[in-house]
Amino acid sequence: CAADLTLPEGRTRVIDDLRDRGLVVDILVNNAGFGSAGEFSSLPRQLEVDQVRVNCEAVVDMTSAFLPEMVHRGEGAILNVASTAGFQPLLAEAVYSASKAFVLHFSDSLHCELRHTGVAVTALCPGPVRTEFQAVSGDPADSVPAFRWRTAEDVARAGIDGLSRGERIVVVGWPNRI
User: Fold this and answer.
1) Residue 152 vs residue 49, higher pLDDT
2) Under a CB-based contact definition with an 8 Å cutoff, are residues 162 and 119 in contact?
3) How confident is the model at residue 136 (pLDDT cuts 50, 70, 90)?
4) Are 59 and 31 in contact (CB under 8 A)?
5) CA distance linking residue 160 with residue 166, whole number of Å
6) Quick one: pLDDT at residue 138?
7) N or C terminus of the chain: which is more exposed, having fewer CB within 10 Å?
8) Cα separation, 40 vs 120, whole angstroms
9) DSSP letters for the chain
10) Can you give the pLDDT at residue 165?
């Protein structure tokens, strides 16, 4: 179900579509997100607002839609894709790093809050991942040393493994953990 997650009605469409199909969400992966690069004062206002809507608001909305059912069943898992950017403010990526800090702290809080419910919550914090992210955000990929890059497959595997072990936060790659 393709939908614009910047819009509440887009998120509702996804939620309703899943329910209309009779699907039970056992594992929720909040992976939608995007970034922008440049001085905040020069970036398009709507782009930055939409970034918060997708990176933060959609995570809260989708989690809120499916978490109560997981708690009621006494099982389930939520993997929220944050970023190593969530651990510090980034020059020329103010909204992105702030939004990922939100996802990191939101996930961390839920992990603790839900520890006795049978529902696992993990924040996945990759560093640079070889995807179209840099091209879309306008962030120059050549500014990151080659040894810090990970593949999407490696990041996904680390996230799934960490979630299955009940880890609170998964930072992918030894250079990023340092």
Assistant:
1) 49
2) no
3) low
4) no
5) 10
6) 58
7) C
8) 35
9) ----TTSHHHHHHHHHHHHHTT---SEEEE-------S-GGGS-HHHHHHHHIIIIIHHHHHHHHHHHHHHHHT-EEEEEE--GGGGS--TT-HHHHHHHHHHHHHHHHHHHHTTTTTEEEEEEE---BSSSHHHHHT--GGGS-GGG-B-HHHHHHHHHHHHHTT-SEEE-SHHHH-
10) 97
Query: Residue 127, Cα to own-chain centre: how many angstroms?
Result: 12
What pairs with residue 39 in β-bridges? none
Q: What is the pTM of this model?
A: 0.90
Q: What digits encode the pLDDT tens for the residues 83-113?
A: 999 999 999 999 999 999 999 999 999 999 9
Give the separation between CA 48 and CA 106, rounded to whole angstroms. 20
- CA-CA-CA-CA dihedral for 134, 139, 144, 150, to nearest 10: -20
Pair 82, 125: CB distance under 8 Å? yes
Q: Please list the active-site residues.
A: 96
CA atoms of 87 and 170, how far apart (whole Å): 12
- The predicted-structure confidence for 2-45, as pLDDT tens digits, reads as follows 999 999 999 999 999 999 999 999 999 999 999 999 999 999 99
Token pair in block for residue 59: 């995570």
